Amino acid sequence: MPYNTILFEVQDQIATITFNRPSVLNALNLELIDELWSVVESVSGDEEIRVLVLTGAGPKSFMAGADIKELAKTSPLQAKALTERVHTLFLKLESLSQPVIAAVNGFALGAGCEIALSCDFIYASETAKFGMPEITLGLIPGYGGTQRLPRLIGKSLAKEMIFTGKFISATEAEAKGFVNRVLAPEELMEEVMKTAAAIAAKGRVALRAAKQSIDQGANTDLRTGIGIEINNFALAIGSPDAKEGLGAFLEKRKPEFKGGLND
After folding, report:
1. Does residue 260 have a pLDDT over 80?
2. What is the rounded average pLDDT of the residues 204-232?
3. Is residue 263 predicted with pLDDT exceeding 70?
4. Given the residues 84, 94, 114, 172, the one annotated as active site
5. What is the pLDDT of residues 51-98, one digit of tens each?
6. What band does 258 get if pLDDT is binned at 50, 70 and 90?
7. DSSP string spanning 40-82?
């Protein structure tokens, strides 16, 4: 299916979504929201896709926030409906069974920073800049920034970023704990794809169980989280991939995971 605002491709069980509005630094507009919704739904139902990668077209920007021209025309009621839709979209992205990697190649501001935070982890170019500058427009982050950022880096650091609206470098973001690796621009996608390939080679049931255990457990107390882990471990050990993995270890060979569900 052709899209106007994104590029979508699948190769070797790795799907890549590229935000493709480089003339406006890949700003998030209504059309991009609708097209991204469609693709995320498609990825969710595709058992052949093991990993999803998000990145931006061009060297300057991952996603430089929401489209200000559209936002300036938005009434409070329209804003409420819009933010509810984007929150639902980002929650869909966050809850995909497949691991999701953000490859941040430039500006990740406002909505761009928020969608990156909805991914499982972030690799960034040395030229990347992160920020939530909504305060400079008389606004606040509206797509999860006030919630995901404090959970990731702590309230004090999140408040400083959100209250000042300042941009931080990829190196600063790595130091604060919300970027996993910082890479030279020419190495970013190569390294992201290496990591994606390493993940894609693992058992699908185990990946899903690990992701659910971490995400669900992080939002509850330790004892409840342990219960989540116990249930997901039992689910994983009953899968054909677990039988293959354990058998391959005992037979001293490399496992070949097929991604099947439990018998």
Report:
1. no
2. 95
3. no
4. 114
5. 999 999 999 999 999 999 999 999 999 999 999 999 999 999 999 999
6. confident
7. HHHHHT-TT--EEEEEESSSSEEEESB-HHHHTT--HHHHHHH
d(Cα 191, Cα 93) in Å, to the nearest integer? 22
Q: Is 186 a catalytic residue?
A: no
Task: Quote the pLDDT of residue 262.
Answer: 45
Judge if pTM exceeds 0.85: yes
* Torsion 140-145-146-149 (CA) sign: negative
User: Any catalytic annotation for residue 134?
Assistant: yes
Given a contact cutoff of 8 angstroms between Cβ atoms, the answer to whether 145 and 180 are in contact is no
Catalytic option among 47, 134, 174, 191: 134
